[in-house]
Each structure stands twice: as structure tokens, then as C-alpha cells.
Amino acid sequence: EESGDRELNLVDKNGEGLTRLTFAKGDDTSHLWSPDGQRIAFMSSRDGRPEIYLMNYDRSDLSRITFNPSQPRLTSWSHDGQWIAFIVDGDEEVDGGEEEPGILLRNPDGVNLIRLTRSNDHEAVWSPNEQKIAFTSDQDGNLDIFVMNADGSDQDRLTDNDSKDHQLSWSPDGKMLVYISERDGNSEVYVMKADGSGQVRLTYNDAKDEHPVWSRNGNKIAFVSYMYGTGEIIVMDADGGNQARLTNNSANDTQPSW
Asked: What kind and span of H or E run contains 52?
């Protein structure tokens, strides 16, 4: 925030060689690397309202790819890099009526806008084979997990209870989902099969757990736990066994990624 606005910066893998990537007025946030590591999608309010922008990692070919009346929220890239998924809340007036909420897709070149859902949705994550998209929706008053074909067809509800089920991640083989559920009065890590069956609780902590992610080989799950007061990164076997604390400090450690 050297300029008073939030900007994107790039560092090498050792945390050195800081390079500032954005210089425009307005906040630049919520960046997502493309699967090939060549491009960065991010949110920017440089034109007066938050929209999704795209640029190469060397700052070249900057382009705006959304022109939405309702503020979009960037959520994910498809694994082949051909689509960017984003969410709109649909809470602003458009031509005398409200825009519909839902999940939309846009090509990185800014064309071929496709709407997948028309409900209050909050996450959208492609399966490893890109045939399915899992997402969370509060269309029934609380967050539950759904899955659909990548074209938006055959939407199936996977969880159904009176508390939140969210923060999902696919296993590398696409057969399982790990997620956070508050069904037991506290945020805990659960897993289930991709069809919603076999829902199993993996953590039993008095404090909340959040943001679980599978390791690339599918053998481990990392997550954030507040059992020690501040957020710490924990890793465990995919069945919940052998939980080990990876971080230990007085600050919050969050958003693990393999």
C-alpha cells in the first residue's frame, strides 16, 4: 500500500526480489495465477468499481474482462486455463430490474460470457478432469454444497442441513471433496464422496477449523485451526490421522496451499 491503494507485488520463491506489478489508482486485490503460471487474474477498482482484469506476470497485455453492473467476485480458473469463473450477487438495479445472481464464466480474452447458475452462490471449483464444478449456494437460506456439469446442467445438492457447509476442495483423483461444516456447532473438517455419500468428520476441536486443501498426491490435507488461539497451519492424513502442527507463532497463519 505504498501508494495508499492496495497493489499487486511479485517476489521470488525465497521471498526476495520484490517487484511491483500494478500502479493504477484504486485497489488491486484477490489475485489468481493461471494454471500455466504465465498470467494473473485479479480484482481492480481502477475504473471506479471492482472488475476483473488480466495481465501477464511481466505486466504486459493488461486487459479488463468483465463489465458487470453488479460487482463480480473472482473465484477460480479452469485447469486448462480456458475459463475464469466469477460470482455476481445480483443486488444492483439494471435497466429497471435487478440483475440475477449466480456463477458466470468468461474466456481470458474477454469473450464468450456464459451463465451457469441463477442462485445465491459463493464458490465454484472445477473437478480435476474439468467435467464437474462444485459450488456452494445459500438458495435455501444457508450454505450447502452442490455439484453440476461444467456447462451448468444437472445440478445436484450434496449436503443438506441447517448449518453452513462450505470452503470445499477436490481430491486430486476427483473422487472426494473436503470441506468445512458447522453442523456440530463448530467449524470442522469433513470429507465426502463426489456424489455426496460417505460424509465423515475428520477434526474434533473446540476451536474452529477452516480452509482445508488436499495435497497433490491426495495423501494429506492441510487446514487452518484456531485451537491454539491464533490461526495455525495443521496437516493430517486424508483420513484425519496423524495431525501435525506446521506453524507456531503469535500471528494468524491462513490460506494453506500445496
From this structure: strand 51-56
